[in-house]
Write a structure and sequence with these properties.
GO molecular function: DNA binding
Number of domains: 4
Structural class: mainly alpha
InterPro entries: Cro/C1-type_HTH (IPR001387), Lambda_DNA-bd_dom_sf (IPR010982), TPR-like_helical_dom_sf (IPR011990)
Oligomer: single chain
Organism: Streptomyces poonensis
Protein name: Transcriptional regulator
Radius of gyration: 22 Å
Length: 413
């Protein structure tokens, strides 16, 4: 398969768009991109290197994938349905946020919950975040099923002195839920969890926790392809927090949250194809990270110089700058970060190698990521798309290792 791009591909996109009677802005809105991005694609300036973006464009034009890009083979309907089916280990956690989680408390006297010892609950929330960072989603879901309603009850029934702490724990739990849901492509559930995290943090008078909830909300919007909402949420939060983060005395936690928001905004710009704006946000995050230093994990954000470079790799891949992504990756030592973050870095390296048609290196990176955190790679939608793209490119020449990986991530074609 040749990489979609150039004037011939752009002309085909423009022709199909006009057949549907769409303006560039209308097509852009339907696929979560910008009118300028569509214009650049049609002029042959912006390449479309990723198979998932190619599929998104085909959906927006209401055509089959092989009409937009004839070289792409299509699977049979049953095979396509099976390939599209996403395994999800968070079903129990999703049920925990369905409806009101503490209705029994509303109907009776609000006596203090005997199961609400804060020291035990704190240990359970710490374990939830450890499972999230490790990408162990099945165990995470099992832990969250009973924990969420328990914390919701305690946050309403605890004594005045303990209620704020209970609400902080509740906010941290919902933040973990939002993070996990995004990684499992459950963006609607991530939106709900992030919104509840914001509410709980505000009720606990944890101002920074509110901003962290907004950070999680931005990622949910990105996954939903609501890039305008993601940009609005990120910019609003940055504009509000930046003056405080610059005042003396400097609170390192504020810097960590601010830097993370800059990285989230960089992702939004990268998804929109705004190369200059994405790189500007990465540069701002780098400046903040120099002040924070490595070895911190404020609000479970893992923000620091290394994490900024990991995000710079991801942004470069999103923009189709595979060479730049690999150059940055060669300088990054991820050994001090969580398993989930290390696996994400390896997955992005695999994406970059795929863009350069370096199939062996791409497969090696994906297998290394799977070894670090099997659940993340086997259930991450981006990993599934990369493996599917490798299978399409390899065709009948696909190696046994690639075929086996495709089976494990549900990406057979």
């Amino acid at each position: 398969m040749t990489a979609p791009g150039g004037q011939d591909f752009g002309a085909r996109v423009a022709e199909l768009r006009r057949r549907r009677g769409l303006t560039q802005g209308e097509l852009a809105a339907s696929i979560g991109r910008t009118a300028s991005w569509v214009s650049q694609v049609e002029r042959g300036i912006q390449p479309v290197n990723r198979l998932d973006v190619l599929r998104l464009l085909a959906d927006g034009l209401d055509v089959a994938l092989n009409v937009l890009q004839p070289e792409v083979p299509t699977a049979s309907e049953p095979e396509a349905a099976a390939a599209a089916e996403s395994r999800n280990d968070l079903d129990q956690a999703r049920l925990a946020i369905s409806g009101h989680p503490a209705l029994d408390v509303l109907l009776g006297p609000r006596q203090e919950d005997p199961g609400g010892r804060l020291d035990e609950l704190c240990q359970e929330v710490d374990r939830v975040w450890a499972l999230t960072h490790a990408g162990r989603f099945a165990e995470l879901s099992e832990a969250l099923g009973p924990l969420v309603p328990r914390l919701e009850r305690v946050s309403r029934t605890a004594s005045d002195g303990d209620r704020s702490v209970a609400r902080q724990l509740l906010a941290r739990t919902y933040q973990a839920l939002a993070s996990a849901f995004v990684r499992q492509n459950e963006a609607d559930a991530a939106w709900v969890a992030a919104d509840r995290a914001i509410r709980a943090a505000e009720q606990a008078d944890d101002e920074l926790g509110v901003f962290v909830g907004v950070f999680r909300l931005v990622h949910a919007f990105v996954r939903l392809q609501h890039l305008d909402q993601a940009e609005h949420a990120a910019v609003t939060a940055i504009n509000a927090l930046a003056p405080h983060a610059e005042s003396e005395p400097v609170r390192t936690e504020e810097l960590s949250v601010l830097g993370s928001l800059h990285l989230a905004l960089a992702l939004v710009h990268a998804r929109s194809g705004h190369r200059t704006a994405a790189r500007e946000q990465i540069s701002r995050a780098r400046a903040v990270a120099e002040r924070v230093g490595d070895g911190r994990n404020d609000y479970n954000l893992e923000f620091g110089p290394v994490n900024v470079e990991i995000q710079a790799v991801s942004a470069a891949v999103e923009l189709g700058d595979a060479g730049e992504a690999l150059d940055i990756a060669d300088t990054v030592d991820t050994s001090g970060l969580s398993a989930e973050r290390r696996a994400r870095m390896l997955m992005d390296v695999g994406r970059a190698h795929t863009q350069r048609r370096q199939f062996g290196d791409a497969l090696a990176s994906l297998l290394a990521a799977e070894e670090v955190t099997p659940e993340v790679i086997r259930n991450h939608p981006t990993a599934r798309e990369v493996v599917r793209e490798l299978m399409l490119m390899a065709g009948r020449a696909a190696s046994p290792e690639l075929r086996a990986l495709a089976d494990r991530v549900n990406a057979s074609v």
